[in-house]
Amino acid sequence: MKVGIIGATGYGGLELIRFLYTHKEVEKVELFTSSEEGALFSSKFPHLVDLYNQPLQKIDYDVLSQFDVVFASTPSGVSSNLFPPLLDRGPKLIDLSGDFRLKNLASYEKWYKKTPAPQEVVDASVYGLTEWNEKAIQEAKLIANPGCYPTAVLLSLLPLIKEKCIDPSFLVIDAKSGISGAGNKPSQTTHYSEANESFSIYKINEHQHIPEIEQAISMFAGVETNISFNTHLVPMTRGILATSYAKVQPGITQEHLTNCLKETYKNHPFVRVIENASSVGTNRVKGSNYCDVFAKLDERTGRVTVVGVIDNLVKGAAGQAIQNMNVQMNLPQTTGLQVVPLFM
Amino acid sequence: MKVGIIGATGYGGLELIRFLYTHKEVEKVELFTSSEEGALFSSKFPHLVDLYNQPLQKIDYDVLSQFDVVFASTPSGVSSNLFPPLLDRGPKLIDLSGDFRLKNLASYEKWYKKTPAPQEVVDASVYGLTEWNEKAIQEAKLIANPGCYPTAVLLSLLPLIKEKCIDPSFLVIDAKSGISGAGNKPSQTTHYSEANESFSIYKINEHQHIPEIEQAISMFAGVETNISFNTHLVPMTRGILATSYAKVQPGITQEHLTNCLKETYKNHPFVRVIENASSVGTNRVKGSNYCDVFAKLDERTGRVTVVGVIDNLVKGAAGQAIQNMNVQMNLPQTTGLQVVPLFM
Amino acid sequence: MKVGIIGATGYGGLELIRFLYTHKEVEKVELFTSSEEGALFSSKFPHLVDLYNQPLQKIDYDVLSQFDVVFASTPSGVSSNLFPPLLDRGPKLIDLSGDFRLKNLASYEKWYKKTPAPQEVVDASVYGLTEWNEKAIQEAKLIANPGCYPTAVLLSLLPLIKEKCIDPSFLVIDAKSGISGAGNKPSQTTHYSEANESFSIYKINEHQHIPEIEQAISMFAGVETNISFNTHLVPMTRGILATSYAKVQPGITQEHLTNCLKETYKNHPFVRVIENASSVGTNRVKGSNYCDVFAKLDERTGRVTVVGVIDNLVKGAAGQAIQNMNVQMNLPQTTGLQVVPLFM
Amino acid sequence: MKVGIIGATGYGGLELIRFLYTHKEVEKVELFTSSEEGALFSSKFPHLVDLYNQPLQKIDYDVLSQFDVVFASTPSGVSSNLFPPLLDRGPKLIDLSGDFRLKNLASYEKWYKKTPAPQEVVDASVYGLTEWNEKAIQEAKLIANPGCYPTAVLLSLLPLIKEKCIDPSFLVIDAKSGISGAGNKPSQTTHYSEANESFSIYKINEHQHIPEIEQAISMFAGVETNISFNTHLVPMTRGILATSYAKVQPGITQEHLTNCLKETYKNHPFVRVIENASSVGTNRVKGSNYCDVFAKLDERTGRVTVVGVIDNLVKGAAGQAIQNMNVQMNLPQTTGLQVVPLFM
Asked: Which residue is closest to A188 within chain C, CA to CA?
């Protein structure tokens, strides 16, 4: 397989490179750019000069159409323009940005404040939450790879909503992310001396992943709901942990909750149902494609705490994208992704 | 004033020392121990040898009764025994542990799994949430200094509950703390290589600060409620940020929420009502006695996000304890506590 | 006293503000800017809105001449222009940049790659290494406050060089700094995700503090030498630790080394001679104006390890600047600076 | 291949597991313990329950003799007893501790303060600095895997000493390590709140890696010298950077230095000669088996700065051990170790 990456100098792109270079079915990885034509990849990442010692290539559809798979790991508002002309030219397309995730274009405009992709291309795209959409992904020409937060939230909550274990009418989701989620562009917020040793809240009730999560709850669990969703910045590089709260439905026990998760994911190698509460932390998945999910009933209040944990750059971005590529190419999902978490 | 500290080698004790040494009304600070008799304070903290170059003193009630104020900064289960004999011997007593906070002894036993202090001593103690209990604190012989989490949670939520801005029947409180909250005793959880670069959840629905928060909501806002409350470990040393979620009452606007907070705290120098969302982070209060509070209405869901931010070791422990001492001694609350946050 | 700060939005300026607001002889602190006229101080630091709720003032020499002291905490190349017209207008001037430190203008040009200040102004300035230059500082109109690295290096090495304990002909100084030393301007180097969890070397043999250290060794110890000096970035916010290596002179013992340090600093409250090796770390001075110095003879090699430890933003910048102001104003050196290190 | 690990619950053991599980020639990995018999591996590392869901096995030489390779990743003083009886029983033995590194038993006793292994077993062992000892490693029954610091120091310095580019008579080596080097056992030094945000020096002139480095300089470069060597703790989990200083020999230029390194390592996939100074940092090798080496001449002083950078847990421990196993088993050195550094 021959794989192209547009936007290779971002963190999502860098993680794609990291995994693809040890993916045994990938022969060649070429790097493209929509904005830095002629720049040397190795001028940004001199320690990777042995992996790729060429200028980033400019986007040429005739060239790209020769590839088996093309990933776009670009800021929102870029692939909505870049990908449509490639749609029927051959390669499987996998977009790591939010440009094709929201089926409702007005919603995209509202939350992203950008011009949406054409409706027919958005309609043709498939939401790449692998464990919940495998069939559609197999057939997809264009995959909208899920956002980092939605991945952690949906994998942990969807089984419980779908199986009516919890009341979806008052869902509170409190999400926390390492700072790599903000990308590689320096800013005051990500300036070391101000981000270090501080925990903060951001985009209060305004995160663009809100409509994505609500759309997926509707799509996969058949439930319409408005969630409360806030995001926080953790002084660490990698990792997302999302803590959700809801009432349980009458009669639901701890056993129901755990079994519901276990049953849902019994054939899914990358979702681990955690029963040992002391193991619910981002270091347990660091560097890997795992999503750890956990649910604990609070009998005192009749509410449940649901937790989803991922490495935001892997299962929340590049790892899930490669998992989707594997599904598209009829490879085992784990190909190239079977790594033990770093832990420390 | 002559001040004694029992448990000076813990982090709470160390912060008491840090502030008391620049408190202009304190002439003398003496250090006592309930468990390390004869140990040199400076063998644990050699960089503070100039401050206190003596062995920790053993507890002697005749000696302690000569002090104006005695702080206990000991693990739970210690001051419940140590303080009762001192109650009427002269010094003002301020306990930083949880031993005198819960009026219901059965509740103490359930959540702390320790033998409670005598009921009459607990009854005589005053809950030291300074901004909400100043009158009682002025008269108190024994102050139960609030827990770190309750301080951040209560200062942000109490005004909105009391003034009926929010519906207290479904309160979700998602709290995050730096690792110094776990104290100075090494463990696997606080081992650098396992705590660093990881965000984790702990004591799920089981934290002993749950009954303390519920009791204070009842006491100060007149509302009985069962909260959802979870705690998380942030890979940083200092700081607590608590994010709470509730429905607003019909007709409540953003302006009501902000005004309610402002009105409540207009004469309270250590509580700052934040309106600039980008300023809601733990580095904004680091090293200081401030509590920053913030409320934002989500019109889409009719729910509010309420945030309280403190330095867990200062407003969440030693700083509030000294603030209470100032109230007891008829000093301005800010004496010895007027420091600018470190920020970086 | 009325104090002005030019460059208040940098970290040096912010630390000046932090200490000056609790300095009992300072009545008023006003903030000036050379480049951000009209900007609100509180738009950068919303959490300090209560301290200073005005626009930064533009530089007006008639206004500034009314102040007792004016600090400049600006990038190099700024105060060389701003300060000369103020030299005889009244206020004591204290410059935290490198603009007046090097007496040899050609050396300034070579290492700073900027136009130097006028020779006569540089000649009139006094190098503000407080413990070594107190007399001259008392009389000075313009103080060149030492660099962060030189402070840690010189305070630890100067006594041993001056007293001929060590051979100065082959001096190796390996210095490490927290990232706040890079200032408040975002860059790829200080971008959290790339600075965090990484230790790196920078400005190899090229740091502009090299000529400053060599000049001070000549000035205070009467020795001309070329040092090896390298700097490293530590993934933490505050702190400098400099490790130096040299041969000891024949017959020099551990006792000589320790006594030499103790004798030198016996009357200097901010330099602590450490004998307990386990106490040599940046957390021991965090947030304070202390410099910890330490020397250990290696009998096996006949060489000594000398260590100097400071908080780069305090003793390495704002703290020492205020210490110098105290000396100029005939106040006790410790006024406004008597804080206990944070430690954790 | 069937591989056994003794001491699997330490960080070295955990990294062995991480790499061996994706090593295509390794069929089976079994875990043994010398001190925790019966403990479940997954009780310590619940997130790895899918990898190894059994009790740690007790050491049984008949069982172990059936393995192709046995690693010991135990504290010093353990494998000196455990390995001798296995020496001629079949498996290749690879020891990650210091027990077989020092050929001089008196030196071992002096620096390690433990009873040494039998002289004949030490004599039979081969020092596993792969790039410098490949031939001997191929034939070895017992490999003494190098220490973490020596690996970074020797790979960067040996070429320059051996090729007489530098004067070895006054070698200063200033080494810095992430905290994972201290292992997985909690202590005050590694307690998060005291290690975080602090840079400290430790084992001043006393580190047990001193004789190992001196022995290897003698063995591989034929030079006897006494080094100055100090170690520092960096508030990060992984990584070692060692900065060395020496005079260059007359006539040696920057080109000589760089070429000497390049020539030495031209056929060695894991040592990268860095020419871009901005790429010298521990994040460039994080999680990988690379050692980055760098040398820069300071023409002003006639001295050179030499830097070696590794991930202490990989090239400094488990990675190099597997590299040595590959050599012993006639596999390409890179088998199982070809990973792209994590960088962020």
From this structure: C186
C180 in contact with A at a CB cutoff of 8 Å? yes
- Given CB atoms, is A222 within the 8 Å cutoff of chain D? no
CA distance C277 to A323: 52
pLDDT higher than 90, residue B37: no
How distant is the alpha carbon of residue C288 from its chain centre?
13
Q: Which backbone phi and psi does A152 adopt, to 5 degrees?
A: -65, -40
How much is the ipTM here? 0.97
Model confidence pLDDT, tens digit, residues D108-157: 999 999 999 999 999 999 999 999 999 999 999 999 999 999 999 999 99
For the record, the structure tokens of A150 come out as: 């939605």
Give the residue among D55, D68, D71 at the shortest CA–CA distance from D18: D71
Contact criterion met (CB < 8 Å) for B278 and C46: yes
Domain boundaries, chain D: 2-146+315-328, 149-312
Whether the CB-CB separation of A6 and A29 falls below 8 Å is answered with: no
Give contacts of A 196-215 with C, CB under 8 A.
196-197
**Would the CB atoms of A193 and C191 count as touching at under 8 Å?**
no
Helix, strand, or coil (residue D208): coil
Residue range B128-162, pLDDT digits in tens: 999 999 999 999 999 999 999 999 999 999 999 99
Q: State phi, psi for B299 to the nearest 5 degrees.
A: -65, -30
- C43 and A CB contact within 8 Å: no
pLDDT at B44: 86
Can you spell out the DSSP letters for B257-288? Answer: HHHHHHHHHTT-TTEEE---GGG-BGGGTTTS
Q: Which helix (H) or strand (E) holds B135?
A: helix B130-139
Provide the whole-model pTM. 0.98
For D205, which of C237, C286, C296 is closest by C-beta distance? Answer: C296
CB-based contact (8 Å) between D187 and chain B? Answer: yes
What is the CB neighbour count within 10 angstroms for residue D104? 14
Share of residues in chain C with pLDDT > 70 (%): 100
CB A140 within 8 A of CB A326: no
Strand partners, C141: none
CB contact under 8 A, D344 and A287: no
Going C203 to C204 to C209 to C212, the CA torsion angle's sign is negative
The two three-digit tokens of residue C178, written as one number? 């927290």
Give the CATH fold of the A149-312 domain. Answer: Dihydrodipicolinate Reductase; domain 2 (3.30.360)
Annotate A161-190 with three-state secondary structure: HHCCCECCCCCEEEEEEEHHHHCCCCCCCC
The sign one gets for the Cα dihedral C215, C219, C225, C230 is negative
Q: Is pLDDT above 90 for B38? A: no
Q: Which tens digit of pLDDT belongs to each residue from A121-156?
A: 999 999 999 999 999 999 999 999 999 999 999 999
Q: List all residues of chain A from 94 to 153 with a beta carbon under 8 Å from chain B.
A: none
3-class SS string, chain A: CEEEEECCCCHHHHHHHHHHCCCCCCCEEEEEECCCCCCEHHHHCHHHCCCCCCECEECCHHHHCCCCEEEECCCCCCHHHHCHHHCCCCCEEEECCCCCCCCCHHHHHHHHCCCCCCHHHHHHCEECCHHHHHHHHHHCCEEECCCHHHHHHHHHHHHHHHCCCECCCCCEEEEEEEHHHHCCCCCCCCEHHHHCCCCEEECCCCCCHHHHHHHHHHHHHCCCCCCEEEEEEECCCCCEEEEEEEEECCCCCHHHHHHHHHHHHCCCCCEEECCCHHHCEHHHCCCCCCEEEEEEEECCCCEEEEEEEECCCHHHHHHHHHHHHHHHCCCCCCCCCCCCCCCC
Q: Closest by alpha carbon to B194, among A282, D72, A177, D6?
A: A282
Which CATH architecture fits D2-146+315-328? Answer: 3-Layer(aba) Sandwich (3.40)
